Structures are given as C-alpha cells and as structure tokens.
User: Fold these one by one.
Assistant:
Number 1:
Amino acid sequence: GVFENPSVDIYKPFDNDILNLGETIEFIGAVNDEKDAKSSLSIEWSSDLDGILHTEVADEQGVTRFTINTLSEGEHTISLKVTDSDDLISTAVINLTIIQLSNAVT
C-alpha cells in the first residue's frame, strides 16, 4: 500500500554471535518494499563501534550481502537500515561480539 515502511531482515550473522577478531564475516540481509523496486532502496549497514560498513544497493531479489574482516574488538550493535523513495525507514538490529580468541590459528 501507500506509505508503508519497507521490510528488512538480517540473516547472517546471527544475533549474539561471538566471532574471532580478524575473521572474515559474511553479512546477509533482505529488504522489500510494496512500492519501490528492491534494487532501488537505500541500504546502510552500520556498527555502533565502526560506523558505516556497507551501502551498496540490494540485488533484484532484495538481497544485500558483503564480507568484512576489519571489525573492531568489542560488542557491536549492527544495524541494517533501509529507506524507500517516500523516505520511510525500517531498521533491523543484531548484537555481535568480536573477541581475540587465544587458540585461533593465524
């Protein structure tokens, strides 16, 4: 319908995941909007510790994905914000902990 907020979900990583510092992490989310093409929605992945992580638009199926291995050590709140052409915003949030694992193979 008109003036409905877009939908947004984070599929990976999982909420409350604990990951190793320097590990390559895959982020996958999905966005949708009743009115706008999925690939036209504005996307912003961010961390409250590291700032904006990724802003490329989603594909035609509404999938947004990227990998990163530079997240800081600590407890992150990861947000995936989607904005449609009516400036309606929806945000999905997960918590992620990055730690230096003592037995990690480097």
Number 2:
Amino acid sequence: EDGAAALRCEKAPKPLRKLSLGWTRVGDAGLRRLCGSGSIGGLQWLYLASNGLTDDAAVALGECESLKNLEALYADQNGIGDRGAAASCSLARAGTRTGTHRQPPR
C-alpha cells in the first residue's frame, strides 16, 4: 500500500501514453489508486504483468473512466479469474486489445 501512493499524482507533467508496471507488485490497491489518480486520461497502452492482481483489480479496470483512450492492456501472469475477465470486457468492447494469461487461484 505504501508504494501505491507514489502512483497517484495530481498533475502529470505530460499526458502519459504508455505505462509499463510489470513485475512491480502494484497490487489491487495500487491499481485502484492509479485509476483514481486523474493522471492517466491519455493512456493508450498499459502493461500490468505479474503484479498479483485479482478479480478486484480487473473490476476496477473495467470501471475506470480514465481509461477510455486505452488501446492495449496486458495483464498476464496475474490471478484474474472469470469474474475479473468478464468485468474487464467493457475495455475490450471499447476497442482495447487485451492480453491475459489466466492462472489458477492460489
């Protein structure tokens, strides 16, 4: 949770277009903070591989209004199951390419 605070900034110097957070242990809480930060409105590409994300994170992604410009999402090697995959489908319907590699829950 402490590291997630660094992801939230009120004003980014330039609009972010690509963000790679693979293998950073951002977790569900960090992802929720990122979605609520207001600094990712221009994001087109998001890489979240191997971060211990669960269905809750995928739901947050699907509900994230800031990600309306997202073109590609990669969330492989996380613990996202059927519920999370269904919730993040709203991004796919919006034209976002998604890449996920589902792993069994631990």
